[in-house]
Write a structure and sequence with these properties.
With 297 residues, the protein is α/β, with parallel strands linked by helices. It has a single domain (60-294), classed as Vaccinia Virus protein VP39 (Rossmann fold, 3-Layer(aba) Sandwich), CATH 3.40.50.150. The protein has ten helices and 13 strands. The protein has helices at residues 51-54, 73-96, 111-118, 130-140, 148-151, 173-183, 200-205, 223-232, 244-259, 264-277, and strands at 2-3, 16-23, 31-37, 43-45, 48-49, 101-105, 122-126, 144-145, 158-164, 184-195, 219-220, 235-242, 287-294. A seven-stranded mixed beta sheet has the order 8-7-6-9-10-13-12, sandwiched between helices. Strand 7, helix 4 and strand 8 form a beta-alpha-beta unit. The relative contact order is 0.13.
Length: 297
């Protein structure tokens, strides 16, 4: 079952146009539209699956972000990249948040939180996917809640809250951002990693761009629309960091969707070009990390 939005989730304008029509190349081959708000430029999947019906689009052991290490070459490549990026993510957290507590929303199987736990941080996570949540709890002994809005007490405070490629999945955007801001300690930071649909590889691959990930991604951000979203909830972006490896991985998946087989050379060249063109601030990298702080002291 799908639901159609009449108003832009960012600015509430009811004027929007079709941006592109793509497919769920990963699982169902169903077609979905991405529309663009004529007022603020925000792009969102419309119609989109309801909260209840969205679950079926994650029901496969091949859904990599919830994979615990089994399965073919693509999960293997993802696993190598994930191992490499754990240290990078932790360094980013420590650079911007010297405090001792962290909440990871959409923590998956818990590898990042486990890494943080080993480094002495007090860790808590949220993960709606049952299999991934159980893995994180049983293997790493993590405290993982099923739902952010109901599972995290509003009286809690965190020095750092992270959403690593999660915000683009969240239906209740308004309630989530309001609650996040209320949970941050004074001088706390919110770290959000997102695909950038203005990047060179996004424009080149268009409907085949793997980071649209329809219909699991219901929002599609650019630098401008993420900054507009932050301002709406009294948050300010203090820095944008690149995720350069993502350009290669996303290009590889996009080549697979476009040509029905992964072309490693083409993907490498496209990733290289994407990272090169990202020096233009109007374009940016394929995926980027936003460091946000509350404007309310």
């Amino acid at each position: 079952m799908n639901e159609k939005l009449t108003a832009c989730p960012l600015c509430n304008s009811q004027d929007h146009k079709l941006y592109l029509t793509g497919e769920d190349y990963f699982l169902t081959n169903e077609r979905f539209d991405i529309v663009e708000c004529l007022s603020c430029g925000f792009r969102f999947t419309n119609p989109r699956p309801t909260v209840a019906s969205a679950e079926k689009y994650y029901q496969t052991k091949e859904y990599i972000s919830h994979d615990s290490g089994e399965g073919g070459i693509m999960p293997a490549l993802y696993g190598i990249a994930r191992h490499f990026t754990l240290r990078i993510k932790f360094k980013i957290v420590r650079r911007y948040s010297p405090g001792g507590s962290i909440l990871d929303i959409g923590c998956g199987t818990g590898e990042f939180l486990h890494y943080c736990q080993q480094k002495g941080l007090v860790c808590e996570g949220v993960e709606p996917a049952g299999k991934a949540r159980e893995f994180a709890e049983k293997k790493y002994g993590l405290d993982v809640k099923t739902d952010f809005l109901t599972g995290i007490m509003p009286t809690k405070r965190f020095d750092c809250i992270t959403l690593w490629h999660v915000l683009e999945h969240i239906h209740k955007l308004d309630e989530t951002l309001k609650k996040i801001n209320g949970l941050l300690n004074r001088d706390g930071v919110l770290i959000v990693a997102l695909p950038n649909c203005n990047s060179h590889d996004a424009i080149y691959y268009r409907k085949f761009w793997a980071a649209y990930d329809l219909p699991r991604h219901i929002f599609h951000f650019t630098r401008d629309t993420l900054n507009a979203l932050a301002n709406k909830y009294d948050l300010s972006c203090i820095e944008i960091l690149p995720q350069k490896l993502d350009a290669y991985y996303i290009s590889l998946l996009s080549e697979k969707y476009k040509r029905n087989s992964p072309d490693y050379f083409r993907a490498f060249v496209r990733g290289l070009q994407s990272n090169s063109k990202a020096r233009n601030p109007q374009i940016g990298h394929s995926s980027e990390i936003y460091i946000l702080k509350s404007k309310i002291s």
